[in-house]
Amino acid sequence: MRGRMWGLAIYVFVLGFILNLLGIVSHVMVSAFAKRWFGTPFPRSLTTEWFRYAWTEFGLAQVLGVTIFIALTVVALTLLIGFPAAYILARRNFRWKPVLLLLYFLPILIPQMTYGIPLATTMFRYGIGGSVVAVILAVMVPMVPLAIFILMPFFEQTSIHLEWGAAMMGASRLQIFRRILLPLTMPGLLTAGILVLVNTVSNFELCFLVSGAGSQTLVVALFYNVFAGGVRPVYSVDAMAVMYMTMVMILLIIALRFVRPTQMVFRLDQPKR
Amino acid sequence: MRRSKTGEPSELDLLAIFCLLPSFLYVMVMFVYPFLYGIYLSVHPLKADGFSLANYIAFFTDQYQYKTVGITFRIAVPNTIMVVAVSLLFAYNMRRGIWMERTITTILVLPISLGVVLLAQGILGFYGGKGWFNQFLLGSGLLEEPLVLTHNFIGVMLSLFMQQFPFCFLMLLGYISGIDPSIENSARTLGANPWIVFQRVMLPLIAPGLAMAFALVFILSFGTFASAIMLGQPAGATRTIAIAAYAQAFEMFDMPYASAIAVIMGLFQLAGLLVIILLRRRMVMAATMGVGKR
After folding, report:
1. Host domain of residue A243
2. Which terminal residue of chain B has fewer beta carbons within 10 Å of its beta carbon, N or C?
3. Are residues A53 and A178 in the same domain?
């Protein structure tokens, strides 16, 4: 009987949490489409004018362009330098390997605010602070280790005997890479790529600290407009939020075709017996 | 020519170095160097020549500044306890698998991936004075006055909980599910009731994962920035240490002082970090999501 009560309580809470989440998200959506809305359960009339307003007033064409450019560049560069590193880390053992793995783990573990401020300071000192380049470089700091840790299991799953067999058959290194490694690790590349993409688009703190007027991503621009307070009508800010949300949701839906939700979170190892 | 097999100690040949060099250099140049530069900068204040601890002294003697440590602790610690306790409660009771698990875990990934800015904007609307939550409470007669849930301490806690509960819950659920059920079954067979099983069998097994979760959530909460600004009172009651560091850097343009504050913040998080490093062998680096958003 008590077990049943517990079970019920849990479902009630989970339900409450989900309703809470849905309420928050849909409130933003309804507000974005409201003409005017104050104090009533639902706005009296709906409109799409706030989207047009947000688009022009907030310069969203430029912001979106910057965001997409940064995101794609980060994904490309991250995979480019992460792929070989993951290959070696998965295949080889050497004395400093645990230290190296810990080093790579630090940018993921240490909160972005803590190393973001020194990073921003360094960038501004060397004159690149505030530029699109700065944002790309900054966001890549946690993304490169992320990509490496995602890719490593995929390499571990690919048997090295396949490479040996190919080498025995006379394949050159390049051929082994192009015709064996690359096709077999394509799922890993896709997984890493899409997760880096989602994380880059929604990255706030690093982008916020190093960006300038022309290099803000969508989230950063959204933050400035929310925090600007009453200067902007809240409906237009919500319209912008809806655009951001749509972008992330689309990426998330694509991501979930390749990755299980539980894989998206830190996984603690099982206790060894 | 390949000389190594996976699992056997081998040397770093030219290929290995070539493959590792770009990412290694990247982390060194873009992560380690700025970190060290920040520490160096923090002991070379703007107004002094050469080495000086003036920034640190200034921080701990200025009440407006050192108050932020207390404020941040008062946000981080209760939040961490709540998040971990609730996550443990639900992960433990759902360890045998839950109905509609895939749907629920998918929905729970949403707060993590949408990020703090969107959540905060939504909370401002939904829990605001005229939002649906208060409308419901007033309209159904449960309350006379609207609850003030935003632009204060409660708003920040709400936002932090919403971001970190899914993360902590999924983490603990994975961990607890991985414990061999036959251990628990044996205990039950031998006559232990569920509470004894939890207290004397499962809890010791869960303890390392729990400690790790606690440390992770604490580290994340301690650096809270956007939540405290958007949903709290950044100039007053919820002025966290991250806000103080940011203000010094981008409002006062005193980079050395800002770096000092960042170092201080980092030291507190280091305590949590040490717990994790000591338990490191228990951690699997699976795909990680929500890197640093709170």
Report:
1. 48-261
2. N
3. yes
The letter for the amino acid at A160 is I
- Using a pLDDT cut of 90, give the percent of chain A over it: 23
Let me know whether A3 and A138 are in one domain. Answer: no
- In Å, what is the CA distance from B175 to each residue of A57, A191, A262, B95, B172? 48, 22, 11, 9, 5
DSSP string, B142-155: S-SS----SSSHHH
- Mutation choice for A interface testing from B285, B293, B294 by most A CBs within 10 A: B285
Local confidence band at B286 (pLDDT 50, 70, 90 cut-offs): very low
Taking the model in full, what pTM does it have?
A: 0.84
**CATH fold of B64-282:** MetI-like fold (1.10.3720)
Cα separation, B44 vs B40, whole angstroms = 7
Average pLDDT over residues B88-110: 80
Whether the Cβ atoms of residue B133 and residue B126 lie closer than 8 Å to each other = yes
- Binned at pLDDT 50, 70 and 90, residue B80 comes out as very high
| Cβ-nearest to B170 among A23, A119, A262 | A262
Taking Cα atoms as reference points, which of B115, B84, B30 lies closest to residue B210?
A: B84
